[in-house]
Amino acid sequence: MKIIMLGAPGAGKGTQAKQIAAKYSIPHISTGDIFRANIKNGTELGKKAKSYMDQGLLVPDELTCDLVVDRISQADAVNGYVLDGFPRTIPQAEALTNALNARNEKIDYAINVEVPDSNIVNRMGGRRACLGCGATYHVEFNAPKKEGVCDACGAELVLRDDDKPETVQKRLNVYHDQTQPLIEYYSKAGAMVEVDGTQDIDVVFQDIIKILGE
Ligand code: ADP
Ligand code: ADP
Ligand code: ZN
Question: Considering the entire predicted model, what is its pTM?
Answer without folding.
Answer: 0.96
